[in-house]
Specification:
Arc Repressor Mutant, subunit A, elongated, four-stranded antiparallel β-sheet, 4 strands, 11 helices, 2 domains
């Protein structure tokens, strides 16, 4: 848009893109570059224009939208700014990414991080939802965020949709080092079950890791501490 021709204003009735108020208070202050803001806005615009329960967009789809290339060229360094912005949104957790690998090549698709998207990502990871025909799915996990899916697969096994959503919630709630340590403790106790890992994390959150005992604790001491008794917050979970 040429600045010599000022925008004449929005019409009284027009299509609109909804942005949660929480974005302005929580996410926007953490954004470090214009490309992150633009990437989030464009992905949000694209997925809200789609129909159906599962909505996502790729970088190529964003770039092809009218006005997108110009906005990134003016404010964020062009296509490289788009790619960096999407990566930044993954780091912030405001977008979720899945890498699709199939006969046509690799492609990463992005979801706005909301309950519906978290369920879709978990289902796709578990193989219960196919996003593209004959396509393998891999979660895109930023380096700064915990590889909780990898830890689960290495220590426990296949990720079901229900567990996948709880893994994403745990990755947001607990520090990465807690998650890695909890998986290690569960493996040492031969308790290869997400409920045990989650029980350890909840206990640390409620009592602090300083109450977990000494390094000299026996195997039976640790087993009683983490697996013995019940925790009320888990009593209703499967």
């Amino acid at each position: 848009m040429n600045r010599a021709s000022p925008f004449r204003g929005f019409p009284g009735v027009a299509r609109a893109t909804a942005i949660p108020n929480l974005f302005f208070a929580t996410v926007l202050p953490q954004m470090a570059a214009p490309g992150e803001l633009l990437a989030f806005l464009w992905v949000t615009r694209l997925v809200q224009d789609q129909r159906g329960a599962v909505r996502f967009a790729s970088a190529d789809q964003v770039w092809a939208e009218d006005g997108a290339a110009d906005s990134f060229a003016r404010l964020a360094g062009g296509r490289a700014g788009l790619d960096a912005g999407l990566a930044g949104c993954l780091e912030l957790g405001v977008l979720l990414g899945l890498r699709l690998t199939g006969p046509g090549g690799d492609e990463t698709v992005y979801f706005v991080n909301n309950p519906g998207s978290r369920r879709a990502v978990a289902r796709a990871r578990a193989g219960d939802l196919q996003l593209r025909a004959e396509t393998a799915v891999q979660l895109v996990v930023p380096r700064s965020r915990p590889g909780i899916f990898r830890l689960y697969e290495e220590n426990i096994g296949t990720i079901t949709p229900l567990v996948g959503e709880r893994l994403l919630e745990a990755a947001e709630r607990y520090p990465a080092e807690w998650i890695e340590e909890a998986f290690r403790h569960a493996a040492e106790l031969n308790a290869r079950n997400w409920r045990y890992v989650e029980r350890i994390l909840i206990r640390w959150a409620e009592e602090g890791r300083g109450h977990e005992g000494t390094e000299g604790d026996s195997f039976e001491d640790r087993k009683r501490r983490y697996l013995g008794g019940t925790i009320s917050s888990l009593s209703h979970r499967p």
